[in-house]
Amino acid sequence: MSAEPNPVLNLPAIEVLTSKLRRRQVVGSRPAALETLILLRQVVAKARFSNIEQLVEIIRTVGRRLVQAQPKEHSVGNTVRKVLHHIREEYNTATKGTSAAPSTTSFSISKFISQGQPKRQNTGSGPNHHPQAMMKATSTWVNHVPAPPQDGRRASVQINRKEDVQQEEEDDDDSTDGEGSSAGPSTTTGQDPDAFAKGLKPVLMEAIQDVLDELETVYDTVSKNAKDHVHSDEIILTLGMSRTVEAFLKAAAHHRNFTVIVAETGPSYSGHAMAASLSASSISTILVPDSSIYALMSRVNKVFLGAHAILANGGAFATTGTLLAATAARTHSTPVVICAGQFKLTPKWNLYHEYGGLDFGDPGDVLGFEEGLLTDGVDVVNPHYDYLAPELIDAFITNDGDHPPSSIYRLIKETYDDEDNDL
Amino acid sequence: MAPRSSASTTKEKLIGGEDEVLQAIILADSFNKRFKPLTTRKPRCLLPICNAPLLEWTFESLALAGVKEIFVVCRSHSGQVKAAIAESKWSKPGSGIKITTILTAKETYSPGDAMRDVYTRGLVTSDFVLVAGDLVSNVRIDEVVRVHKERRKTNKDAIMTMVVKESGVNHRTRSKGDSAVFVLDAETSECLHYEPVDGHPKKSTVQIPREILAEHPELEIRNDLIDCCIDVCSAEVPSLFQDNFDYLDLRRDFVHGVLTSDLLMKNIHCYVLKEGYAARVKDTKSYDAISKDILSRWTFPLVPDDNHPSGHVYEHLRGNKYIAKGDTVTLSRTCKIGNNTLIGSSTQVYDNAIITGSVIGRHCVIGNGTVIRGSYVFDGTVIGPNCVIEQSIIGAGVSIKEKSTVMKGCLLGDGVMVGPGAKIEAFERLSVKPGMEVQMDVEEDSEDEDEDKGDDDSEEEVEEDGLTEDDTELDSDIEEVEKIQDTLKAKLVLGRDSNALVWPRGPILDDDEEDAEGPDNFTNQRLVRLADNCSDLADSDSDNDSDASTDSNSDSDEIPIEAGGASLLLSQPQTEFKREVKLSLDRAFEEGHSVDNAAVELKTLRMASNVPLVHVRTGVVAAIVDRIPIVEGNPGEQRQAIGKMIGRWGELINRIGGIDGVETVTVLQAQCASSKRVALFGPILVALYQQDIVDEDDIRGWHELPVSQGVGALLSEAEELKRCWTVGSRMIEQFDEQESSEEDDDEDSE
């Protein structure tokens, strides 16, 4: 980033969110992701930048501060990465949309999924691939181009775009983001420095809004295909209170009759809430103590679990107790399925089993503070999460389709840009 | 507060909305010296716990609770406190908290004085949170505030809510020296009775007033609560302190006073925490306990790896080990780091060193083969090879040379140098000799810049003022210590080049200080000392019970003192009250107040000190008797003098709040018997009788009491009492005669 500190970085909202994250006043993947998105939208709206690189740097700085405030809430970093990815994508679409063939450089998720490694494809792929995604990208731009009444500004944006395009024609596509934008400021110098930002902002807001929409509908989209995964008269085991699993099972209950066994999931006993909620929507529900998970496993057809984060190696962090359930399921060869939104995809590994990653909480839940002398002699730990190795998981159901653990790395590569893995 | 539902209230608070700002007052002075000599050059609230100053933990605790405006009331070392606040992240614009430092006068000796200062400055306008500057808490205080406000809507007399935490009697964080029994109404959790419990001598009974049992169907009498010293107070609390100028301590005086007062009619409630953690670093023992609680994550999310108040970043490893992140820590391959240990950034630990259950500051060096167990080492300390340090607190910039041993419970002040080969006995306290400080400062400058900056940056006049005054106070301390150096040093091996000054064990020093600070603070000081004796690191390490047997050395000279202190403590309010009564009467006599005025003054005094009526009567009678001039060899004149005195002031005896002639006579007898005015008993009694202050029945009633004859009194006094009694008998004989003669008269007339 340039030398002068950007005023947007002093936005009080950033400080408010970092301290909330630090103080654990925002907990849970989805609330954290939502708050992050709302903050980023504010930042982008207020940011002053004259090229895309500056904007990316601003967002990265904000993201870095948020992640440092609470490294254990992975969805914060993920959201930042996703927004960055979308911004670059929109920028690329926008810069090429008018001058070059719109389809050549547009990067959309759906396209990545259908075509694999995006960065390798240089040649223009057919516009017929995903016309809908294309339409959207172009239409947003088309909508906005006539919008600004000031001709000068529009012109500058146009110039930018042309510059970029020329640059990109010379360069390989891999370096699009860095190189292309570096050309931006040289052309804008001497003109209104805000012109670039003004032209691009509506598109970016649109991009962030897309991410927000996706996040808001994540439970519905995850449970879209629920009936394909749950069959009639199956017995399903779940742990803890996962909103995703809850929505998923409820969606499945519209089409199927099945039984859910909910483990209490100490020490939080969030299973109680889960059981109450499921049985309220007339699913036959059984609440069992954690100790009987193994004994019941032989009768269970499937294990559905929520996740706190899905890691790049296909492993996952999930509520304490899930390791027990997953291991028991493995012994009985019962399938273990994890339901989670895409915002939980985290480009990180846990190869060395980082101890702190499990996020240890207040031991008070395990052993009461009033136990007095006992607390002096005993070391009590209360991890929030278990780490599930990829071998223990059979499938991930996300809002982006179903995936085996082995293909998670690819999903992550497609969802985020590589350079953002370390914010 | 307009919004009704709690959810919307908290939300608005978080957003920083328009509704009423929650204020907090931090009493940043400890008003005691439990941490000496660590606190000679630094206020207690800036002592680090888990490598962050206590004050920062307090700020974080308050921020967690949504407090928006904080007043920090500080007295000693105020310059340092100010500088520390200015430097911290809290004074940055984005923190969302407004912090104002309030300097109180040097004459502020107690929390009560500080509260009076708060009142005179008019700092608070609505309900506020009152905490000490050494609080570590993750409690949602806003929830307590909400409950408090809710209660205030229906009951205007609920002036305060105390936050207490359930802990069990023997919890390490529950101070044994300084706890209390709470009597709560089971339904409303109103605090009905508060009785402080001192650790030494052990208190085994608590007296609960009978009315409480009569008025409340269900009571909880609890001895398992930690007093978190978080009080949600109404705006009138400071004014109560103003009205009752003798309130010193928040608990022992204020809470006790309000609850027992029959005039104030105010209620205090308790909020028993179900979840959350809160405790005060009151003394070295709670320092140890709270450090352990932080390391074992009871204070979550206020833990080193998550929300460290100073913003350090630590990595949490298996077994609650916390190592500073960022590769600045050098750990030798062969050193052993045990459980529950925290190691600050840029610290070096060499081969075969063993560190368990300890906190090591930043920029420290731990030499080869050194063993550190259960100790707290502040920033920039260098510990040479092959040392052993057990359960001690080592200040900043200390240098301990090779092969030294520091036994448990020691406090080493900032910049002390000992060794090589020093042997420091258990519970020793060391600080730097005045002359040697310069050297230490240089050393500290290089290693511990942050702290020193605080000193150097102080530019304002007030601060300099404060510092010099601190220095003079300190110098007097040190002079005292220096006087007795030779005797103290004989026991210890400090090693050559040591710059250490050995502080005496026990309370010799404190006694002198008490004199210096005046009798106003007497109670407070004594309580502090009691607690100190029990909660010096001595006790933290071994149980209270085993302590007496294992540690004959330190205990042998402490126990008798404590016992003496306790008896003094009990009688202390009484003597003080007597003194007050005497002063008040002296004034009345000299300035010729009306009896009414004098009576009102005495009544107020009684209410304030909460003593039974008999003490007032004793005081008044004694004053009157003492005022009667003795006229030798002239009974007539003597009688006249007595008559004049009783005529002017006798009425006062019955105006002090109750008429009890029998008691008056008893008191008079005791007073005469114990002074040189035995002979005056008869005449005074007659005069009282003539003024209708006592009547015949009273005299007869008194006469029949066994006590009046000197039964159960000391030998020397019994005789005098007996003499008075005989005078009385003679008078009664007279009455009998009179009666019979009256009867005769009647008969005659008929």
From TrEMBL, chain A:
Q: Pfam families from the entry?
A: IF-2B (PF01008)
- Record's keyword terms, sorted: Cytoplasm, Initiation factor, Protein biosynthesis
**Feature: compositional bias, Polar residues:** 115-126
Q: Which Gene Ontology cellular component terms are annotated?
A: cytosol; eukaryotic translation initiation factor 2B complex
Question: What SUPFAM superfamilies does the record tag this protein with?
Answer: NagB/RpiA/CoA transferase-like
Residues of the region (Disordered) are 113-196
Q: What subcellular compartments does it reside in?
A: Cytoplasm, Cytosol
Cite a single GO MF annotation.
guanyl-nucleotide exchange factor activity
UniProt keyword Ligase present: no
Regions of biased composition (Acidic residues) lie at 166-177
InterPro entries in UniProt: eIF2B_beta_subunit, IF-2B-related, IF_2B-like_C, NagB/RpiA_transferase-like
The keyword Cytoplasm is assigned to this record:
yes
Q: What is its main location?
A: cytoplasm
Question: Tell me, how does this one assemble?
Answer: Component of the translation initiation factor 2B (eIF2B) complex which is a heterodecamer of two sets of five different subunits: alpha, beta, gamma, delta and epsilon. Subunits alpha, beta and delta comprise a regulatory subcomplex and subunits epsilon and gamma comprise a catalytic subcomplex. Within the complex, the hexameric regulatory complex resides at the center, with the two heterodimeric catalytic subcomplexes bound on opposite sides.
The record, for PANTHER family, names: TRANSLATION INITIATION FACTOR EIF-2B SUBUNIT BETA
Family assignment from sequence similarity: Belongs to the eIF-2B alpha/beta/delta subunits family.
What is the official name of this protein in its record?
A: Translation initiation factor eIF2B subunit beta
Q: Which organism is it from?
A: Pterulicium gracile
TrEMBL record, chain B:
The molecular function terms in GO held by this entry are:
guanyl-nucleotide exchange factor activity; transferase activity; translation initiation factor activity; translation initiation factor binding
Q: Where can this protein be found?
A: Cytoplasm, Cytosol
Where does the record place the W2 domain? Answer: 571-745
> Sorted alphabetically, which InterPro entries does this protein's record hold?
ARM-type_fold, eIF-2B_epsilon_N, eIF2B_epsilon, LbH_EIF2B3/5, NTP_transferase_dom, Nucleotide-diphossugar_trans, Trimer_LpxA-like_sf, W2_domain
Q: Which domain of life is it from?
A: Eukaryota
Transferase among the record's keywords? yes
**PROSITE patterns (alphabetical):** W2
In this chain, the stretch annotated as Disordered covers: 434-478, 502-560
Q: What is its main location?
A: cytoplasm
| GO cellular component assignments | cytosol; eukaryotic translation initiation factor 2B complex
User: Acidic residues: which segments have biased composition?
Assistant: 440-478, 509-518, 538-560
What keywords would UniProt list here?
Cytoplasm, Initiation factor, Protein biosynthesis, Transferase
Q: Which Pfam families match?
A: LbH_EIF2B, NTP_transferase, W2
> Which family is this protein grouped under?
Belongs to the eIF-2B gamma/epsilon subunits family.
Q: Give the quaternary structure.
A: Component of the translation initiation factor 2B (eIF2B) complex which is a heterodecamer of two sets of five different subunits: alpha, beta, gamma, delta and epsilon. Subunits alpha, beta and delta comprise a regulatory subcomplex and subunits epsilon and gamma comprise a catalytic subcomplex. Within the complex, the hexameric regulatory complex resides at the center, with the two heterodimeric catalytic subcomplexes bound on opposite sides.
The entry's protein name is: Translation initiation factor eIF2B subunit epsilon
Organism annotation: Pterulicium gracile
